[in-house]
Each structure stands twice: as C-alpha cells, then as structure tokens.
Amino acid sequence: MKMNLKKATAGLALAISLITSGCEDTGAGGQAGSTPADVVSKVLESQKKMGSYYAESTIRTYQNDQLLTESFSKEWVEEGTGRKRVEIKSGDDEAISVNEGQELLTYDKKSNTAFTMKLDESMGTGSMSQKDQLMNLIKSMQSTHNYEVAGEEQVLGNSAYHVKVTPEKQNTLLGELEFWVDSRTWFILKSSSASGDMKVESEYTKLDFAPKFTDDTFRLKLPDDVVMQSIQDMHPAREVSLKEAEEELKQPFLLFDDKELSLLKTELLEFKGSLNRTEINMNFAKDHMPSLHLSVFKVPEDAAWDPLGEEIQIRQVKGQYMEMIRSVAWDEDGLRYTIIIENPDLSLEQVLEMARQMKLSSK
C-alpha cells in the first residue's frame, strides 16, 4: 500500500509517540473475579509500575471500513532506566527511534534523515503511545459507558478477558471499545475502538516480559551520509512573557482560569515554509504533574480541519476532537486554539469544562 505524505508523517509521529511514553506494568497480577469492575480496576492499577519487555504489534486505522494505515512496530522497554527503542514500518516508510533518557534520536530510513530532540521535565511524557491512549479511553468511559465481560478467550497463547464497552446514550463523543486483557499480567493484548466512521485496531503479535538487553540495544548506528537535524533547531523556540505573546499575536488570547493549574512555560515559535506562522505554546501542570499543552496561532487561510478528527461543541462553537492524540481544537476571534491532554487522569469532559471557563490573557 503506497502512502501519501500525511500517512508517512503519521508513521514517523507514531514512532516518536511510542518511544516518549510509558507502558503498563508487566508483573504478575494474580487472579481476580471476572466482573467488569474487577477487570478494569486491575488494568488501571497495573499502570503504576513499569516493567521491561520486548513486543511486536500491528496497528490498523480504518475510515468507513476502508483501511487507511497499517503499521508494524517493535518495542524494547527497559525498567528503571527509562531507555526505549522503537522500530516501525508503515507502507514504504520505516523509522527507528531510541530514547536514552535525555535525548530522543529518530532515524527516517526513506529520507536518510535523523532527527534529535532534547527531553526535559516540562515536556511531561510527550505524545502518548497506543497503550496510553487506550488507558485514557478506559478511564474516561467509566462514567458514560457500560462495561461487560463477554468471556475468556485465548489471545497470543494467553487466557484473556474480553471486555466490551458501549455508550449508555446514543451519539456520544466516545464510541464503542473492545479490549482483551491478559488475566495474569493485566497487559492489554488486543483492542478495537470505534467512533463515528473511524476505527482503530491494535494487536500484539509477540510479547516477552523477561527480555535480555545490552547497551547496543539502545544505540542507533547511522549511515555515514545521514542528514542530521535537530527538531529544536528546525523550529527554534524562545521563552516569552504573556505580554510579549500578546504583542506577537497582536491581540489577547484565552488562558485557563483554574487555580489548580500552574503555567510552567510560555514559548514563541516562528514556523517557516508551508506553515509560515507565529505560534504560542504553553505547558500547564496540575498537582506538579505536566497535564495540558495549549497552542495558539492565527487561523490559517486554509482553515480546514484534519479529516481524522471528530466534530464537537466547545465554548459554544464548533471544534474538533482527535482521539488518537487526545487533542481539542477550535477557532475563536481569529485565533486557533489546540489543547493536548497529557495527564491521563484528566477526562475529556473535565478539559471541556476548563475550556469553557477560560479568560482572556489581558484580564
């Protein structure tokens, strides 16, 4: 399947998101009752620790039952050190990423280009992996959906609980979800989520919870003629005050009005080329944990939304929600706002309420 530019970019982004994120606990979970509450409780509890593992998986995205993307990935995750490696193939594209804790190095084989990115605490966990996104879905659906254990099945040679999650009301923002969770380790082996005309299927094809890693596992050998680029240098950012941000945008902009949120950093980015815009990026923390990323820029001339998003109502206007990256976007008074939800404990409904209460920076 030949991929267009958007799909190729999505494949590279997936490699970065997989490697900048956490993972489930792979320790023994013991047996528990097979009620929905028991299973969901054990799955969420298993996220508190991180164990080493090696895994291979397939992720497929469909729109109106038509296959859009198909990705095959390999993951190496080392407990304690935070070191990770991801190799991902999607169509003709192939990317390898290594996170050694302080820096992320991603190599795009097709373009023979390597991208480096410095990591710091204010970035939080960065974009979330497919597993993290699934955990957030399970949490956010608990109050609006019905959970049913449909039985036990064999998945990847393991006994797994098959859980079906369906909305209590029709036309809800979050649709249906199915997942199969290992009854011993509480690791989710397979999932299928559907919302509107979009569906995402994820399935592990190989898992090793006792892998043996060497230092070479987390080293990336690059060709001599590789083109090196720093993501920060490509779009250099400088820290600014809120007043300076207003001056750059030539108008005040909306900010969260929540005493539980603290503003960690405000940065100005000057994008060139096809984007050609000035963008303000802000990181917010809740309970000392990076929780929300807010970006603001002038509404582009081509104001079309991404076709993979879902239309929602936010602040009494039409906006878009992208489930895959947990982002909310809308246009207001000539500015486009995008909120990325980084804290897995924050539900979409909570963030929509925070957005409703936003106030202008000038106030």
State the helical fraction: 10-25%
Proportion of residues in β-strands = 35-45%
Number of helices: 6
Mean pLDDT, rounded to whole units? 79
Largest sheet: 12 strands, mixed
Briefly characterize the structure:
With 363 residues, this protein is an alpha+beta fold. It has helices spanning 5-19, 36-45, 130-141, 231-234, 242-249, 348-356; strands at 53-63, 66-77, 84-90, 93-99, 103-108, 113-118, 145-155, 158-167, 176-182, 188-195, 198-208, 227-230, 237-239, 254-255, 261-271, 277-286, 289-298, 310-314, 317-322, 327-332, 335-341, 359-360. The model is unreliable at 1-33 and 121-128 (pLDDT under 50).
SSE diagram, text form:
Blueprint: H1 5-19, H2 36-45, E1 53-63, E2 66-77, E3 84-90, E4 93-99, E5 103-108, E6 113-118, H3 130-141, E7 145-155, E8 158-167, E9 176-182, E10 188-195, E11 198-208, E12 227-230, H4 231-234, E13 237-239, H5 242-249, E14 254-255, E15 261-271, E16 277-286, E17 289-298, E18 310-314, E19 317-322, E20 327-332, E21 335-341, H6 348-356, E22 359-360
Parallel strand pairs: 6-12
Antiparallel strand pairs: 1-2, 1-11, 2-3, 3-4, 4-5, 5-6, 7-8, 8-9, 9-10, 10-11, 13-15, 14-22, 15-16, 16-17, 17-21, 18-19, 19-20, 20-21
